[in-house]
Amino acid sequence: MRFDKQIAVRCFEENEPSIDARPLVEYWLSLWRGDALPARADFSPKTVVKALPAIAIFDVVPDKSVHCRLMGSGLTQGLGQDPKGKDWIALTRPEDRVPRLKRWSDVAKGAIGRGLRPGYRASGAKHYSEELLLPFAPAEGSDAHQVLYHISWKQTVYDPTRGGVDAVNSLAEEFRLFDLHK
User: Fold this and answer.
1) Would you put residue 145 in left (φ > 0), alpha (ψ -120 to 50) or beta?
2) CATH code of the domain covering residue 157
3) Which residues contact 109 (CB under 8 A, 6 or more apart)?
4) How far is CA 2 from CA 87, 104, 165, 167, 182, in A?
5) What percentage of the chain has pLDDT greater than the value 90?
6) Which of 78, 77, 128, 131 is nearest to 100 (CA)?
7) How does the average pLDDT of the chain come out, rounded?
8) Where in 20-165 does DSSP place strands (E)?
9) pTM of the predicted model as reported, rounded to 2 decimal places
10) Which residue, among 132, 116, 101, 108, has the nearest Cα to 180 in the 3D structure?
């Protein structure tokens, strides 16, 4: 399948990623091979060490399932549990399961997902964090496509009133998909 790297580049030129996500986005863009999506095997986490607490990788079988392969320490702390190996759709509110599966499936098939997720600062002030979903090329012989997830959100101490499963089991607001197909 053919993709267009210039669509990916424009996606981030027209709306720059958050300062926390910028090095990750630049690295992901550097992994493209012409117009082929980056291979997961080429992604070296140590290249983006500062972003690791806010990164997760999911195995997505389009239109069927989304499972957490690994999750950074900051996300795990904010969630209040380690979701490694768990069904991400099952952790989603029932009314949001179908649209969440569609979003992740669309990304896995070759799109960039960008969204805003509301949250609250320790002061109680509302705060929005940018959520990114970046596809990797499907691995040979596998139905699962890996998707790189990043959120520009930090929680210094787990607070069940501001984090946990209830904070992430809903959909990001203002979500947009950027189709990378030629």
Assistant:
1) beta
2) 3.30.450.20
3) 62, 135, 145
4) 29, 19, 37, 36, 6
5) 67
6) 131
7) 88
8) 55-61, 65-71, 111-120, 126-135, 145-151
9) 0.90
10) 108
Tokens of 77: 């702390």
Q: Quick one: which H or E segment has residue 155?
A: none
pLDDT digits (tens, 9 = 90+) for 22-66: 999 999 999 999 999 999 999 999 999 999 999 999 999 999 999
The pairs formed by 24-30 with CB atoms below 8 angstroms and a separation of 24 or more are: 24/48, 24/51, 24/55, 24/132, 24/148, 24/150, 25/132, 25/134, 28/134, 28/148, 29/5
Question: 2: pLDDT confidence band, cut at 50, 70 and 90?
Answer: confident
For 167, other C-beta atoms within 10 Å of its C-beta total 20
Contact 181, 90 (CB under 8 A): no
Specify the 3-state DSSP secondary structure of 142.
coil
* Alpha carbons 68 and 169: distance in angstroms, whole number: 13
The number of folded domains in the chain is 1
What are the Cα distances from residue 159, in Å, to 21, 57, 70, 182?
24, 24, 22, 44
Domain that holds residue 22: 5-179
- Tokens 């320490």 belong to 73
Rounded CA-CA distance 86/101 in Å is 14
